[in-house]
Amino acid sequence: MPWNDDDPSALASLFTRDGVYQDLAFQQTWRGHRQIALWHSITHQGITGVRIKVTNAFRGGDHVAVQWTFSGTMRGAPASFTVPATTIMRLRHGRIVSDVDYYNRADLLKQSGLPADWTPPTS
């Protein structure tokens, strides 16, 4: 699964050139292959043992819904987290045009032992 791999370009290649990834929990939007690859790198650098595990998925035409678990340990956090998540994707010619991730940020931070106002480090 490209998301769990260390190669950011493998994940980015699943998107159209104008593809958009949104993480609503952390209010981040990434556009195009370069930014999506950067998001993958930042996530893997900031979360030790980061993994997703797909638990359910279905497709209707050019729309895909995926249920999954998101897990790992945030850099500097005293504990790991595992939270349920849902992604809604829109496809064009078999590639992702938009990907919107939904999960509970408060639950992730609480499980991690981080304060509710915590934000990811910038470097």
From TrEMBL:
Gene3D superfamilies for this protein: 3.10.450.50
Domain SnoaL-like: start-end pairs: 3-98
Record protein name field: SnoaL-like domain-containing protein
Organism: Actinomadura meridiana
